[in-house]
Design brief:
Layout: E1 5-9, E2 16-17, E3 20-21, H1 25-35, E4 39-43, H2 50-59, E5 69-71, H3 72-83, E6 88-92, H4 95-104, H5 111-115, E7 122-127, H6 135-146, E8 150-153, E9 159-162, E10 165-168, H7 170-181, E11 186-187, H8 193-201, E12 208-213, H9 216-225, E13 229-233, H10 240-245, E14 252-254, H11 257-270
Parallel strand pairs: 1-4, 1-12, 4-5, 6-7, 7-8, 8-11, 12-13, 13-14
Antiparallel strand pairs: 2-3, 9-10
Helix pairs in contact: 1-11, 3-4, 3-8, 6-7
Bound molecules: magnesium ion.
Length: 272
């Protein structure tokens, strides 16, 4: 019997770099759609929500339904819905995370309300990358966590590469709150179990998952930890030299998704 495979793609550094699609990405996604191979896009970025990502992908000619896009912000919402009791949320994060926490519908305490003392009612402090981070946000998050609120991080990435070089990521903001509270957060994104649980629940009846990513410490660790085929592409953060120097060993290392397209065609012909 033919084994049913599914693919999980990281996005940045895999399907595109900045606003430039990687050669072969569109053709690969079209092939998967035509062949009926299930796939999802899983990003640790929480600053955009799936509808914003759908627009971005569409502008690069990659046309996928919103429900195949899973951000760490959405994964955080789905995980909270599944595992936690409703309670007020204090958010440090970008627009995407704010939208997801609104959709959660448990009520949000904003900084103005926190200033009036509402930080005492906060049950969950949810932290992602926040381009509008202020000392005051860190202060109320600290007070709420020290008051017993659950500390949740969207993703562990301490940095991310951008135009001027390496920028601080969500993990750096989470680290500040770990320092000020002495509390260990629950972190949702890759390479952690909550991201796997949420992604897996979208891929029913699949025998084998291939995880395609550009980062060893998140994507490839994630793949290895949960028994997925670890497919590394070299169009993003890590280089071939990095791969050779680490103990994390991908199952397959390819220059880009263009070569994955050829690999997949051969694979599909062989299993027919
Ligand atoms: Mg990436």
């Amino acid at each position: 019997m033919r084994r049913k495979i599914a693919l999980i793609f990281d996005m940045d550094g895999v399907l595109y770099r900045g606003n430039e699609p990687v050669d072969g990405a569109r053709e690969l996604i079209n092939l998967l759609k035509e062949a009926g191979v299930p796939f999802i896009f899983l990003t640790n970025n929480s600053t955009k929500d799936p509808s914003m990502y759908r627009e971005k992908l569409l502008s690069m000619g990659i046309d996928v339904p919103e429900d195949v896009i899973l951000t760490s912000g959405l994964a955080t919402r789905l995980y909270m819905e599944r595992h936690f009791e409703p309670g007020k949320v204090f958010v440090i994060g970008g627009e995407g995370l704010h939208r997801e926490m609104e959709r959660l519908g448990w009520g949000i305490v904003d900084v103005d309300e926190a200033r009036e003392g509402a930080w005492r009612e906060v049950k969950y402090v949810v932290v992602g990358l926040d381009p509008g981070l202020t000392y005051e946000k860190l202060k109320y998050a600290t007070l709420a966590i020290r008051n017993g609120a659950r500390f949740i991080g969207t993703n562990p990435d301490t940095t991310y590469p951008a135009e001027e070089g390496i920028y601080p990521g969500a993990g750096s903001i989470i680290a500040a709150l770990k320092a000020s509270t002495d509390v260990e957060p629950l972190i949702i994104g890759k390479p952690n179990e909550p991201a796997y649980e949420v992604a897996r629940s979208k891929l029913d009846g699949v025998d084998e998952i291939w995880m395609i990513g550009d980062r060893l410490d998140t994507d490839m660790v994630f793949a290895k930890r949960f028994g997925m085929k670890a497919v590394m592409v070299l169009t993003g953060v890590n280089t071939l030299k990095d791969v050779e120097e680490t103990r994390i060993k991908p199952d397959l290392v390819l220059p880009s998704v263009k070569e994955l397209l050829d690999y997949l065609k051969t694979f599909m012909e062989a299993s027919e």
